[in-house]
Hints:
By secondary structure, the chain is mainly alpha-helical. The chain has helices spanning about 15-35, 40-45, 55-70, 85-100, 105-115, 115-130. The protein is about 60% helix and about 0% strand. The longest helix has 19 residues, at about 55-70. It is globular.
Amino acid sequence: MRLRQEAYPAPDPVAPEGGLTLINHLRVIGLRCRAAREAAPLESCALIGATDDTARALHAETLMRALPHALGHAPVLYRPGSAALSFDEAWIMQLARALASGDMPSAEFLLRSRVPLHARRSLSFLLRSVSEHFTLI
């Protein structure tokens, strides 16, 4: 039995404008961090305490370096400017929205679905810190 391609089209999720701005920001940071070593979320958060512009940039870089450790694989990131989202990008955007809106049951579900227990708190801190400067809702 052969499956017809028309019956199962490839997903092409498109993000609303605010979420896409955050994802594009993370895509650019991700490109810059490709050569850097991975960072464990717990060790990374111990290094961050300030709230100025430099700290925000460091939060974004640390988030992108910690994601492979937290997810167990390097996240799939599309080219900056692409309107389509990978599964990993859609997951990041939904988690950022849940954290920004205070929807903790959804945030907890998203974290439990992909992130080990020891990395959840640090990853949510980093994503919340980065995403608070973007309109997500």
